[in-house]
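Continuing the batch. This is chain 6 of the set; chains 1 through 5 are on the previous pages. Same settings as before, nothing changed between runs. Recording input and output for traceability.
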Amino acid sequence: MQCKKRGDMDSKMMKGTSFWLGVDVLRYSIRLVVMVVLLGYLMVWIMMPTNMFWLHWLPHIHAKTDSKFFGQQGANLLIYTFPILLVATLGCVYLHLGKECVDHDRAENSRWALWKRPVLVKGPLGIVSWIELSFLSMFCILLVWSISASLHGMFANITHQSAAKIGVKVWEAKLESAGLMLSLVGNICLAFLFFPVTRGSSVLRLIGLTSESSIKYHIWLGHIVMTLFTAHGLCYIIFWAATNQSSEMLKWDKIGVSNVAGELGLLSGLAMWATSFPRIRRRIFELFFYTHHLYIFFIVLFVLHVGISYSCIMLPGFYLFLIDRYLRFIQSQQNVRLVAARLLPCEAVEMNFSKAPGLNYAPTSTLFVNVPSISKLQWHPFTITSNSNTDPEKVSVIIKSEGSWSSTLYQKLSTASPKEHLQVSIEGPYGPTSTNFLRHDMLVMVSGGSGMTPFISIIRELIFRANRISSKSPRVLLICAFKKSLDVTMLDLILPLWGTTSDIYPLQLQIEVYITRETEPTRDNQKLLRTIQFNFKPSMSDVPVSAILGSNSWLWLGAIISSSFVLFLLIISILTRYQIQPIDHNTDMIYSYSARSSLNMLFICLSIAMTATAAFLWNKDQAAKEMKQIQNMDAPTPTRSPGSLFHIADGELEAFPHQSFVEATKVHYGERPNLQKIITECEGSSIGVLVSGPRKIRQEVAAICSSGLADKLHFENISFNW
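Output for chain 6:
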């Protein structure tokens, strides 16, 4: 009998091993297909500026693909749009299969550790790693190649005779060609502009990025796009003025380029560009935020300017952004259940939301929060401080009162009690599919002010693993720099509001706190060192925080991408065959470009809305069945004392509960941390150095890790900056 049981167990283990082996094979196959597709896509970009592409390749493709169902637009959809949407769909399947393959992902990350080391620390580009610098250099080479190849091909055909035939001078003809070239190169940047701001992008996750860490790429691309498009517009304005064709600025032709649409689009782009510079963005964030919604007019006018066929070049990135934006819109229409909040004397508030049981997220994930009673349009990102393992029923974010929106929220919560109900909407969570901090022997976390919030979820994860999992956890050194002693109460937030069943003792944690603007402990305001905690009475319409597409969100996203694109192709094929083709006869010279572009944009939106809404409603129905009991539950009662864990007196920390946590903390007054000495003296073969906070402290840590003083240091900047 025992032999039979043992044989059954061996059989199950073999089946399990075979299953995961099959998953690995499938993932490698997907990765291979994606690499081949991306290499082919890159080859198209390299060949685009050449006469070989325009005079030989493209006509041959058109001859094979032009039909009564898609017209000349079909070739551009095949060359530019289909490959990226295929990669995005395959990426969804790859990420779904890889949810359990965390160890493999960690090994993959360790291979790139050296390339992720910072090389540029100060300057307009911010902190740039070797791998970022490499890709930036290759992208710049692509742009330079496109400019030089395009100009060479265009200028080669401009002679005195050819210029005289059209009634212009040689320099005027070259100026017009240069303007055209600038638009072609600008379109390359525009094609990549929306990838970094697609928060739920499978393409970003496929290459190991998140939208939060990619915002700077969007900023770089935005500056390049507007520089090229502005130069493009100026070239044509000067050309028209020099050739007495100023009336061209008022033309909106039925066939071909619509100049008025281009000019209006450029104006909307300039408005966004002017308000996006750091000084304006940081001082008048609301102006930047509201002005940036002009991107809708910018894209619509761009499509009307050049036509839908040429717009297929930039369509893939914007198509994926539209899907993500519509899913975010659906999620934002729901009010989430705010369970409780606690106010700290350092003017920080922790908001605790009810969480659906199937929602899992990695440490350092972010949540976008909207409070309609403050502003119906403003959404602000905050790091999730709770942990899926230690906080199975709630999601928490910490909001420090530093701007007008956050200050209003803090005042709103602190002026009246008890709170009956507060209407809150969220988008997210968004974040990495997995984290690689467990591969290090030691973690050094450096934070300034509220920059410590990303580290709270990491520490909670490490506490959970140290108590529940036999694998070795890294040693942790948390360095916090605060301006005032009141800010030390933010350390309370490391431990959950509802208490924790995990002991902090198994984790080797050391906390070094530096109070930079006070030379001694504050003795006369101990009464302020108490937090205010209260519960909220939820509305029946409130829902727990959950993934917009359920637990299998990657599969559903892949289904939306593929099915919406197929539906779009079906609709435009019917439109082309029975509406456009009888009029235009596949010449692109009769049917209005603006009408065709408008119909295509409408059908893209309808296709995305129909498929995404269907997927959302199905998942919402499934989630409602699982959440009936949770929606009827009363809010839990806090088990922690409302007092701070830290009573500051005579430079020591007196423990209330969680003695081991307080014992791990040491406070230094009137000094700043000597980061170079602390970091370089850390022992271990692999030390992860994580930094979050003001730019100055991030640059200082990056400089230490890039100096070559210690090859064992692995830098990671996890700050989120608009």
